[in-house]
Amino acid sequence: MGGPGESVRDVLAANLRRARIERGLSLSELSRRSKIGKATLSQLEAGAGNPTIETVFSLSRALEVPISDLLDRQLPFGPTVVRGAEVEVLRGAAVDLRPLHGIEVDGAIVEVYDQRVRPGARQDSLGHVGIEHTVVQAGRLGVRVGDQEVELGPGDYIGFDALRPHGYVALDGPVRSVLLLQYGSDQRLRHADPHAPGPGGNG
């Protein structure tokens, strides 16, 4: 997600504007839905600011689109190799996410993330589109979904509807896990030819 010379903010800037326009939303309306200030949204669309996990998930929820529709660039043909150490980290209150790849089948998509949960804080989400899957690799992870709480250890899995409020907390030291976000084809934005003229213009 993002290519050579492209930062998360560069890719987000282009995709956020495209998603907002495709949804027919003004900056003011998107600000109302996402609870993100209009000035901040304007900065994000200009490629400025410092997007966090909370910001990107709020935009995903408000626009009703997958995270990858906001963070992906078009991938080239051929084998795709992603070096985790070279991926820009998206940081939140307690989680570091490294977006690795999006697997698309018949318009549906599964996003793959390296997820690391830092101890000492909780990562909460009000909910967003998609089905969330987490597989713990190392450490003990506390997961809250609605009013239910479970503890997971290495090799354990949890899946749930991500529209429900949920949160993660590292219980006794850092946690490494794989996060998968699954979206149906009806939750994707239309992906038009990026070289085609835009509405009412010549590209």
UniProtKB/TrEMBL annotation:
A molecular-function term among this protein's GO annotations: DNA-binding transcription factor activity
SMART domains, alphabetized: HTH_XRE (SM00530)
One GO CC annotation: cytosol
Presence of keyword Nucleotide-binding: no
Residue span, HTH cro/C1-type domain: 16-70
Entry keywords, A to Z: DNA-binding
A Pfam family assignment: HTH_3
Record InterPro entries: Cro/C1-type_HTH (IPR001387), Cupin_2 (IPR013096), Lambda_DNA-bd_dom_sf (IPR010982), RmlC-like_jellyroll (IPR014710), RmlC_Cupin_sf (IPR011051), TransReg_Diox_bact_type (IPR050807)
Official protein name in the record: XRE family transcriptional regulator
Organism annotation: Actinomadura rubrobrunea
Organism classification: Bacteria, Bacillati, Actinomycetota, Actinomycetes, Streptosporangiales
